[in-house]
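FAQ

Q: What does a record look like?
A: Structure on top, sequence underneath. For example:
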């Protein structure tokens, strides 16, 4: 019930995302580990955008200058090469941060 005595709809959401969860025992509030994982997901989503943006730019160039499919073709190639290169760099960085330090045998 609301403070005025009215019934709330069954699908109503709390006023803040974690208000209800923070009041319960064993809440599912985000932790620093969760925010680190979310950062990785956003970084990987950025790679997807880097692959799509050159294609959209190529479409615009094709339309603006009437150069046929060449803007899209060049945009697709640049997006694929640049996106995959950035993905490899990011995954290597993620592996380096997540893996324990190696102990070289001497």
């Amino acid at each position: 019930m609301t403070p005025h005595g009215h019934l709330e709809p069954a699908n109503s959401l709390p006023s803040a995302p974690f208000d209800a969860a923070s009041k319960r025992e064993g809440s599912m509030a985000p932790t620093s580990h969760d925010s680190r994982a979310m950062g990785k997901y956003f970084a990987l989503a950025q790679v997807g955008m880097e692959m799509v943006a050159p294609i959209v730019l190529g479409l615009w160039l094709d339309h603006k200058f009437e150069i046929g499919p060449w803007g899209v073709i060049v945009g697709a190639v640049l997006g694929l090469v640049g996106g995959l290169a950035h993905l490899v760099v990011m995954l290597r960085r993620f592996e380096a941060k997540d893996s324990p330090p190696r102990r070289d045998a001497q």
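Q: Is there anything notable about this one?
A: Residues 32-65 form the longest helix (34 residues).
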